[in-house]
Amino acid sequence: METNNTNSDFQIVTASAEDVNWMSTMSEREKWNPGLKDAIAFQLVDPNGFFIGLLNGKPVCCIAAVKYPNTTCGYIGRYIVEENHRGKGYGLRIFKHAMEHLTGCCIGLDAVPSQQKNYKKFGFQYATAVKRYIGVIQRKAQICKNIRRAKDISMDKLIEYDARHFPCQRTHFLASWIHVGTDQCLVYIEDDGTIKGLGGIRLGVDGYRVGPLFAETPEIAENLLYALCPSESDTKVDFDIPEPNSDGILLAERLNLQYFGESGRMYTGVIPKLPLSNIFAFASAELG
């Protein structure tokens, strides 16, 4: 984070749809591998939760500060300052603006190790390491009668199941993710109608991004993962696994995926108690 700068030509505005596209372009420049449909899928969750910093009318920084509707949960992501404008205080100002927007919320974010100390100054607490794995999953013909499209499952069941793995219900996010954000979203469901797993995959700039991947067992997670990948070819993927999920790490290693790096999931307020052993991939670094 930068020192403060009082340049009167700098202003913060709520992002337009085109601005959110620019934010995705910034993410691509940072090598974050955004999903190709992230801009519209993210904005549908909270249209007022995306901000652009303008210097003399031109965008120089951005941040997402999404409030999950009808909850006290928020999430910060897409926090980027153009390289030639770093160290001038613009990033700090837009971050403070995001925090004010989320006043009263339990706020989550993913932070690279070098920035975690700075976030602690704003009341964030470290919850868990999140490890990214990347690689190619070999094509595998696999038929599992328990896997169905999420679009075919009643939303109330999906919302309830997702909420077990996140600090709050995220109805708008799920609807956006299933219908817009992902290329495929699947559910593992028992014969009695009990959901035992949920997974999504979306095409990114470089391969596919898996998330979420929630499962009651490693076997269900693996079945969902193979079913999510396009069947016509091997599939390059990346996904973010909470470090305490040792089964998730073992699954990634058994599939010959490579460790790429890690971030830290942090929260303000009380750290949510989540079943990390059942979270084989978080939905996204931008919205949790």
TrEMBL record:
Signal peptide: none annotated. InterPro entries: Acyl/Acetyltrans_Enzymes (IPR052729), Acyl_CoA_acyltransferase (IPR016181), GNAT_dom (IPR000182), YitH/HolE_GNAT (IPR041496). Pfam families: Acetyltransf_1 (PF00583), Acetyltransf_18 (PF18014). GO terms for molecular function: acyltransferase activity, transferring groups other than amino-acyl groups. Residues 12-160 form the N-acetyltransferase domain. This is N-acetyltransferase domain-containing protein. It comes from Trichoplax adhaerens (Trichoplax reptans).
